[in-house]
Amino acid sequence: MNGHGEEQETRQTRETQRTGPPARPRAVELALGAMAAQTLATGLRLGVFEAFRDEPRTAQDVAVECGTLPQPTLRLLRALAGLGLLREDSPGRFAATGEGAVLREDRPDSIASFVHVFTDPAMLRGWDRLDDSVRTGETSFDAVFGKDFFTHLKENPGLSARFNAAMSQGTRSTAELLPKHYDFTGFQRVVDVGGGDGTLLSAVLRAQPGLHGVLFDSAEGLAQAGAVLQDGGVADRCTLETGDFFRSVPAGGDLYMLKSIIHDWNDAQCATVLGHCREAMTEDGRLLIIEPVMPDTVPHEGVAPPYLSDLNMLVNVGGRERTRDDFAALCREAGFAAPTVTVLPGNGFSLIHAAPLR
Question: Fewer CB in a 10 Å sphere around the end CB: N or C, the chain?
């Protein structure tokens, strides 16, 4: 090699040392995403994150606790460290990062159930046929499992309980924000339609001592609700009612609240549910939908989660995420005036508030 070539190579080496290796194309990072998700899911299933409490652990320690082999365990732990969920403080010795710590089941801020559900085969197998759903508009889940998603949950109590816990964990931030950003003054009886275990309604009732609630869902959806309301100290001001919102909803409420319900269903189904709310509410009643509101165009900086959620609705349940105009059309179809939309800060949800058409 001549001197000029050596000088050029030295400059390139120094530049690489200064700036790091060239960034991989975004498409390569995305192609590895499924592997990252499986690494995370495997750590959860094996109980890796439960092994990290208050002290660092060696790979040998974790292997003993999880019933795995030390050398493959070390490789898994290093992959989890590469994903930012653990850190390797010295060779073979690890601790949980803040992102990894919330994957422990025993923490009040745990997101373990949420991650379990969204990495479960019941959620993912339909994605193998996303191309079919894009071609036909039909849900892939039904073709793969021979039944719809919610029937599958009903027939699998363990998965149903985990799904309820996941929805509760996904609702915590909204439960904290809603009483601060929506004026419940003047309402007497709020009906939480499809309210699950009551995480949201419990927070509202705690913040509004004069308010009474009705928590309405299927028997499977309400399975853990009694304990949540009791723990929240609001069980004496809340009634549990089971039913099917495609048939009817409890009558006599002056506020009907639906969080993460509308995106599960197609437009005709949504119009039916909202129409039942319109029929059941008092003369001066109001509707409150809590959902992400999609912008008219995708932001240039890229915001993946709502669009991935939209595809998940297509693949697994047949619903969709919606824009402001989409929500306005649904409200109009169900007998409501054009809604007002308020963005909740920091969690991706909006409040869609509507009054009945007079």
Answer: C
